[in-house]
From TrEMBL:
<feature type="region of interest" description="Disordered">
    <location>
        <begin position="215"/>
        <end position="259"/>
    </location>
</feature>
<feature type="compositionally biased region" description="Polar residues">
    <location>
        <begin position="223"/>
        <end position="243"/>
    </location>
</feature>
<dbReference type="Pfam" id="PF04012">
    <property type="entry name" value="PspA_IM30"/>
</dbReference>
<feature type="compositionally biased region" description="Basic and acidic residues">
    <location>
        <begin position="250"/>
        <end position="259"/>
    </location>
</feature>
<keyword id="KW-0175">Coiled coil</keyword>
<dbReference type="InterPro" id="IPR007157">
    <property type="entry name" value="PspA_VIPP1"/>
</dbReference>
<protein>
    <submittedName>
        <fullName>Membrane protein</fullName>
    </submittedName>
</protein>
<comment type="similarity">
    <text>Belongs to the PspA/Vipp/IM30 family.</text>
</comment>
<feature type="coiled-coil region">
    <location>
        <begin position="47"/>
        <end position="81"/>
    </location>
</feature>
<feature type="coiled-coil region">
    <location>
        <begin position="108"/>
        <end position="149"/>
    </location>
</feature>
Length: 259
């Protein structure tokens, strides 16, 4: 392609598609097919005109042959009638049409070759246009894929990966903290429940022991091993025992308060 052809193609492409860039591959392919289709239309018109001219020349040639045959018969008829002068005139007219027929035959042969050449060119151009359309679709798909890949790579380059990962790490840390708080609350709840049951068991043991102690003291006929209250002998001794009991009770209360 020459320089001027390239300039003409770029200008034509810009006129047909003002949105696209001048050197856009997809637009250039589309413009090339448009130009090929325009050439196809012109070539079809040229083929049609050449065929019409061929038919016209062929008719003229056939007419000339008919005239040649006619004047040939006329010359023979004139000789048969004994009119040599009329036969000569008929042969002169035949000669004129013969010369014209010879020229028309040469022109017809040339036009036939030209028409056949134009037909072959037309078939080749139609085939090239079909092939160009197929290639255009393939290249268009490749261009689209390349643009998508380029856009994707640009998006990847523009992403702040470190910031995104930091955000994920912060969220993960929050989730871990929340899970830890939930687990701690569950453990505390379980421990508190165990302590409550332990207190209940301890309280039950004390109550049972207290009840047993009351039964030993209040039941008559206790065994020698059971603790019995000493008999009352005199008031001073009773007071002394009372003071001892009070001291023991006070000591027991202090121990209980310190627990």
């Amino acid at each position: 392609m020459g320089l001027f052809d390239r300039i003409r193609r770029v200008v034509s492409a810009n006129l047909n598609d003002m949105v696209s860039k001048a050197e856009d591959p997809e637009k250039m392919l589309e413009q090339a097919i448009i130009e090929m289709q325009e050439d196809l239309v012109q070539l079809r018109q040229g083929v049609a005109q050449a065929i019409a001219a061929q038919k016209r020349t062929e008719k003229q040639y056939n007419d000339a042959q008919n005239e040649i045959n006619k004047w040939q018969r006329n010359a023979q008829l004139a000789l048969q009638k004994g009119d040599e002068n009329l036969a000569r005139q008929a042969l002169e007219r035949k000669k004129t049409f013969t010369e014209s027929g010879t020229a028309l035959k040469a022109s017809l042969e040339q036009q036939t070759v030209q028409v056949e050449t134009l037909k072959r060119n037309l078939i080749q151009l139609e085939s090239k246009i079909s092939e160009a359309k197929t290639k255009k679709e393939m290249l268009k798909a490749r261009i689209t894929a390349a643009k998508a890949q380029e856009q994707l790579e640009g998006m990847v380059r523009g992403m702040n990966t470190s910031s995104a990962m930091a955000a994920f790490e912060r969220m993960e840390e929050k989730v871990l903290m929340q899970e830890a708080r939930a687990q701690s609350a569950a453990e505390l709840a379980g421990a508190d429940l165990e302590q409550q049951f332990a207190r209940l068991e301890a309280s039950s043991d004390v109550d049972d022991e207290l009840a047993a102690l009351k039964a030993q003291i209040s039941l008559p006929g206790a065994t020698p091993n059971q603790q019995q209250l000493p008999p009352e002998t005199s008031a001073p001794k009773s007071n002394q025992q009372s003071e001892v009991v009070d001291a023991e009770l006070e000591s027991l209360r202090k121990q209980l308060d310190q627990m």
